[in-house]
Amino acid sequence: LAKTTQPISMDSYEGQEVNITCSHNNIATNDYITWYQQFPSQGPRFIIQGYKTKVTNEVASLFIPADRKSSTLSLPRVSLSDTAVYYCLVGGYNNNDMRFGAGTRLTVKP
Amino acid sequence: DGGITQSPKYLFRKEGQNVTLSCEQNLNHDAMYWYRQDPGQGLRLIYYSQIVNDFQKGDIAEGYSVSREKKESFPLTVTSAQKNPTAFYLCASSRERGSIYEQYFGPGTRLTVT
């Protein structure tokens, strides 16, 4: 089962780019990497998912190196409303590994 | 308007009582999940269900029970056997089981047991 490791917390300022890295050394061949965002007292919501190289959508980019042992969520020009906990989840089809871990608490300051 | 509903938002119970948390989805998803979240912690999987009339224990199933009699509904009962039931409970669903499928979460139920 793929175990993930993320920094516990990060601070940033409005307008900066934020990069959050997740380590997953024992990722399996069929595993995908998925990131979720959670605001206080709400359920997490899906941000982005990828398998390799780079994925970009309207809110974030996901960079995955060739060995896939880590991944980096990139949030461009963060605002105060991006203050949240970000979770990295690694897994694939029909697996039992739904472990979100403690996540990374991002605080964006004015 | 598709989504997941959980009720109630806040629930208070006395120690020794069983309590049932509701979770309903109209997304036509096969898989449903229950998670527990404690302050400052990540999500821990309690139970999941891949299909109607089938469910499996997650990492912390002791003291909890579930049923899946309908595709849309996956209620969670917190029994008196659960040693520390006070927590934030989140229900989720996905098209099929597996973390590759996007999970849609409900708003959560905050349970306080005194």
Strands, helices and their partners?
The complex is a heterodimer of chains A (110) and B (114).
Chain A: E1 9-13, E2 18-23, E3 32-38, E4 45-50, E5 53-56, E6 61-64, E7 70-75, E8 84-91, E9 104-109
Parallel strand pairs in A: 1-9
Antiparallel strand pairs in A: 2-7, 3-4, 3-8, 5-6, 6-7, 8-9
Chain B: E1 4-7, E2 10-13, E3 19-25, E4 31-37, E5 43-51, E6 54-57, E7 64-66, E8 76-78, E9 87-94, E10 104-105, E11 109-113
Parallel strand pairs in B: 2-11
Antiparallel strand pairs in B: 1-3, 3-8, 4-5, 4-9, 5-6, 7-8, 9-10, 9-11
Key attributes of the depicted protein:
heterodimer; A: 110 residues; 4-stranded antiparallel beta sheet; 9 strands; 47% strand; B: 114 residues; mainly beta; 11 strands
Brief characterization of the structure:
With 110 residues, chain A is mainly β. Chain A contains no helices and nine strands.
Distance between the termini of chain B: 36 Å
What do the pLDDT scores of chain A average to?
Answer: 92
**Poorly predicted parts of chain B:** none
Q: What is the radius of gyration of chain A?
A: 13 Å
Beta-strand content bin of chain A: over 45%
- Kindly state the number of beta strands of chain A: 9
Structural class from helices and strands of chain B? mainly beta
State the helical fraction of chain A: under 10%
Largest sheet of chain A: 5 strands, mixed
